[in-house]
C-alpha cells in the first residue's frame, strides 16, 4: 500500500514539472499561440488546486481506495489523450483531466497512509517515503522532460505516465482491500460547499496564474480575485451550518492542523519559486540546454531524499517541530545563497552548493509537515485533512510563483540581457528565502511544543466504545459480576 501511494504521488508531482521543458516543442508541433501555450501549464494547476478539497472529502464519504483508483484511471486516460493530441484544445482538455485525476489521487493516497500507519515511528517513516517520492518527482520532472523532449519527442512527456499509473494500479489492487459498502459514509453530499470551494479556489488560481498576462493591478485580475474572496467567505459561512461539511471549520482550531497548513503554504511558495527561477537562470543566463538543465536538478533530488531520511529518523518518537524548524532555516539559508547568483557564474560555483543545502532543508520540512497536518485527526476525516494539506501546498506553489515572477519581471523591466535577467531572478530567490524563514517562525510560534499522547493516531473513533464495552464485559466476568 505504501508503494502504491508513493508511486501515485511520484507521478502527480512529476507532471507538475515534466511538461514545462517541452513547451517550445509543443508550440511548434501543435501550432499554439503564446496565450494558448500558457494554458498547457495553467489548466493543470487550476483543476488540481480547485478540486482538492472536494477530492479529499469524497475519500471519506465514498472510500479512499475507490477514489484512489478512479483518480489514477482518469489521470492515465487523460495522459494517453494528451500524448495523442492533434489540436491545441485537445492537449489543454487532457491536461485539465489530468488535474482532476490528481485532485482525487493525491488526498486519497495521503489518507490511506495516515489511516493505515497509526503509530508514531511507522507513521513517520511512511510519510517520509511519501514526501521523498513527492520531492523526487518534482525534481526529476525537469530532467525527464528535457531528456524525453530532446531524444524521444514531446509526446512522451505525457505517455511516460502510463507505465507509472499502471504500476500503481497493480500495487493497490494487490495490497489494498476495497472498503465494505457499510464502511463508507452516506451522508447527503455538501453540494453547495463543493461548488463554493471549487469555484473559490479555482478563481483564485485562475486570477493568480493569469497575472503574467493581465498584471496584478488590472481590472480583470482584481475582479477575479474579488470574486474568489466572496466565494470563499460564502464557503466558510455554509460550512459552519451544514451537518456534513466539506471542511469542518473546527478542524482549523487545532494548532497542529492550522499551523502545518500555513507552514506548508509558505514553504511550497518558496520551493516552487526556487525551481522556477533556477530553471530560468540555467537556461537564459548560463545558456544550458533542456537536458543539461534537467541534469542540473539531480543534486536537488539527492538532497531531498537525504533530508527526508534524516527527518524520519529524528521525528520517529519526537514532535515534528524537531525537524521543521531547522529544516526551514536550512532551506532559507540555501535560498539566500542562491540569491547570490552571477551572470558569469557556473553550475559548480552558483548552483551545486545551494542546491544541496536547500534540498536537504526542504526534505526536512515536508514529511514532518504532513505528519503535523494530520495529527489528532479522526480517521473519518483523514481525507478532509489530506485534501486541505494538499490544497495548501498547491495554492502556495501557484501563488508563490505568480507573485514572485511578477516582482522579478518588474525589477528586470524590458531588458533581456543576461545581467538584467540575473538581477530579477536573484531578487525572486531572496524573497523565496524570506518565505522559508517565515515558515520557520510559524513552526516555532504556532505548532505545539509537544505532541500529546496518541495524537499521531488516526484510529477510527467509532471503534473506541466497542473496545471499552468488550473490556468491561471481560472485567465483569473475571470479578464474578462485581464492578471494580
Order of helices and strands: HHHHHHHHHHHHHHHHHHH
Largest sheet: none
CATH superfamily of the largest domain, by name, is MFS general substrate transporter like domains
Count of helical regions: 19
Class by alpha and beta content: mainly alpha
Average of per-residue pLDDT values: 84
Q: What is the architecture of the largest domain at the second tier of CATH? A: Up-down Bundle
> pLDDT under 50 segments (min length 5)?
453-479
| Global shape | globular
What's the CATH first level of the largest domain? Mainly Alpha
Biased composition (Low complexity): 454-463
Protein name: Major facilitator superfamily (MFS) profile domain-containing protein
GO molecular function: transmembrane transporter activity
Subcellular location: Cell membrane
Spell out the blueprint of helices and strands.
Elements: H1 2-17, H2 23-30, H3 34-62, H4 64-83, H5 88-116, H6 120-151, H7 156-159, H8 161-175, H9 191-209, H10 211-214, H11 219-239, H12 255-285, H13 290-296, H14 298-314, H15 321-338, H16 347-373, H17 382-412, H18 418-445, H19 463-478
What does this structure look like?
By secondary structure, this protein is mainly α. The chain has 2 domains: 1-176, Growth Hormone, Chain: A (Up-down Bundle); 250-448, MFS general substrate transporter like domains (Growth Hormone, Chain: A, Up-down Bundle), CATH 1.20.1250. 77% of the residues lie in helices and 0% in strands. The protein has helices at 2-17, 23-30, 34-62, 64-83, 88-116, 120-151, 156-159, 161-175, 191-209, 211-214, 219-239, 255-285, 290-296, 298-314, 321-338, 347-373, 382-412, 418-445, 463-478. The longest helix is centred in the first third of the chain and has 32 residues, at 120-151. The protein is globular, with a radius of gyration of 23 Å. Residues 453-479 have low confidence and may be disordered.
